[in-house]
Amino acid sequence: MTVKTGMDPFTVEVIKRALISAAEQMFATLGRTAKSSVIYEVLDYGVALTDAQGRLIAQANGIPPFIGVLGDAVRDVVKKFGENGLDEGDVIIINDPYMGGATHQNDVVLVMPIFYRGKLIMFAANKAHWNDIGGMEPGSWTPSATEVYQEGLIFPAVKLYEKGQECQGVVDIIARNSRIPDMTLGDMRAQAASLQVAARRVIQICDKYGLDTVLQAVEIYLEQGRQEALAQLKKLPKGEFTAEEYIDDDGLGGDPVLVKVKVTITGDEFIIDYTGTGKTCRGPINAPLSALLSTAKFAYKAVVGPHADTNEGFFAPLKVIVPEDCVFNPKPPAPVSTYWESDSYAGDVVWKALAEAMPDRITAGHFLSVCGTIVSGIDDRTGEWFFSVEPNAGGWGAGRGKDGESGLVCSGDGETYVLSIEVAETRYPLIVDQYALNIADGGHGQWRGGFGLIKDYRITNSRAYVTASFGRNKFPPWGLAGGQPGTPNEVEIHTADGKVEKRGRFSNRELKQGEVVRFITGMGGGYGDPKKRDPQAVLEDVLDGYISRETAREVYGVAIVGDPPRIDEAETRRLRGG
Asked: What gap in Å lies between CA 56 and CA 51, rounded to an integer?
């Protein structure tokens, strides 16, 4: 297509915003019509519009690794079916970890071609977490999986709807393999309905402005996105930057897994090279290649232009190098169901590599893991399965001039929320005994890391099962510029006989009535020498109960005396060598 560069810029901008609005309407529709709390309450989903080639042209805020994979899903659909193999009203379902668009099997992609007067012009796509799609354990994702076939149904880009009609055979397979078929099919149909909303809106835009004008506007603003990225790249430091981190283990208690990166920034390229990263793991922490590429995209965008429009053009300067048969590009049939335990490191290690060179843009390490949980069982009140599925928020790292955020979801969870106490206690047989800041001893610095959280679920059912995967259990968040590391994530089981089990992972662990599972998320890393922290800020931390007087003295060099507490100026100068 020849692009009319002289097109009225106001028309281009109006069409761009109209397409973004269509994506946002798709997002709202899915959230309002889904049956699962992990979708309508937590917002564990993402949506996007692409052009006919699968290039991202509009999105709504959602989970970053979800949005970045949707173009890959569309490209796989185009490759498999071709333009002539798709009809108006078709919807294709994909969750195969070894195809484009993949994260793990619970995260199901639906793709719909959008036709205008018989011509395929765009695709609407969304991806949402289904609570249960079969597999070896309730909830499907499990830290104990050793091959992908144990993690639930696999949909390798097949038609779920054909010319607007459900393919009954596929629907029957889904229903028969889910422990909660009504909820699963309800979420499926909510996804399909939201695609239809987006398609109608796109058609309205084409009716108003004309198809040629809309397609020309798309080409122009994709080029604008590329030019914006190049302009931002020119402002960044140039050179090669390296970092490495360790994942706790291989997913099944083996040795730690090395993650390495080399970031190269030039005037027109941003290259992320993961060569040297550990091999495909035995356990389910492997990240599908599509998920890895998406995480690299949001790490890049956070550095290059966090407020820029998100489209394929903006990602044009990004190049990603990933070796085969590594934890970020696993060899099938390796399990992937807790992929976030490696995938999250793919973004974090990029930021770590650039942190010292870009102190105004990057903060110290954060709690990082999704800290995903499933509390499930047969509800005594109804005789039916229940599933409480959610991430957990934690502490973020401090930056130059700011303390870290407390109780914020991890980088890979983007715009999601934690499950509210009211919904948890109303829908599921449990009571939230405690929901509080995790006032841990860590993350000290001139600016301190944010606090993680502690949440206690007491089981009121006769029995329930807990699955949890909390990475950064052995290697806490990194400090920056002399700041101290944060604190680890952990899960505790408090049994009826008074025993306490502490681990980073539990797989379908049975709990009896009255027993408690405690979810603990870590504190972010600190920034700068703690002894340079403003003494008044240290006093406020003591008054708020965040640190003790002893910590104020020994770590920060601030003497707090008296009641009410006050700063002993002379002793503080002595402690700080002033």
From this structure: 7
Q: Are 495 and 507 in contact (CB under 8 A)?
A: no
User: In which band, very low, low, confident or very high, does the pLDDT at 7 lie, cut at 50, 70 and 90?
Assistant: confident
Calculate the average pLDDT of the chain.
Answer: 96
Cis bond leading into 333, ω under 30°?
Answer: yes
Per-residue pLDDT, averaged over 98-127, amounts to 96
Query: How many CB atoms within 10 Å of residue 85?
Result: 12
Q: Find all residues with CB under 8 Å of 238, minimum gap 6, and list them.
A: 265, 266, 267
Residue 5: pLDDT over 60: no
Q: How far apart are CA 183 and CA 511, in angstroms?
A: 24
Token pair for residue 265?
Answer: 């920034």
**C-alpha–C-alpha distance, residues 297 and 229, integer Å:** 12
CA–CA separation, 435 vs 455, rounded Å?
5
Report, in angstroms and rounded to the nearest whole number, the Rg of the chain calculated over CA atoms.
25
Name the H helices within 319-473: 340-354, 421-427
Closest CA relative to residue 469, chosen from 325, 338, 296, 563: 338
Residue 95's contacts (CB-CB under 8 Å, 6 or more residues apart) are 102, 104, 105, 106, 107, 108, 109, 133, 153, 154, 155
- Phi first, then psi: give them for residue 42, nearest 5 degrees: -85, -25
Q: What is the pLDDT of residues 188-215, one digit of tens each?
A: 999 999 999 999 999 999 999 999 999 9
Residue 399: per-residue pLDDT? 98
Report the candidate in 108, 1, 106 with the shortest Cα–Cα distance to residue 47: 108
Orientation of helix 289-304 relative to helix 211-233, angle to 10°: 70
Q: What is the spatial distance between Cα 77 and Cα 99, in angstroms, rounded to a whole number?
A: 10
Residue 108, Ramachandran bin (φ over 0: left; ψ between -120 and 50: alpha; else beta): beta
CA-to-CA separations, 493 to 212, 383, 458, 518, in angstroms, rounded: 61, 25, 10, 6
- Per-residue tokens: 346: 């793919």
pLDDT in tens, 315-362: 999 999 999 999 999 999 999 999 999 999 999 999 999 999 999 999
Query: CB–CB of 220/5 below 8 Å?
Result: yes
DSSP E strand stretches across 238-302: 239-247, 257-265, 270-273
Looking at residue 1, what is its pLDDT?
46
The token duo for 164 is 């607007």
Q: SS3 for 422-443, per residue?
A: HHHHHHCCEEEEEEEEECCCCC
The per-residue pLDDT for 100 is: 87
**pLDDT category of residue 4 using cuts at 50, 70 and 90:** low
CA distance 140 to 294: 23
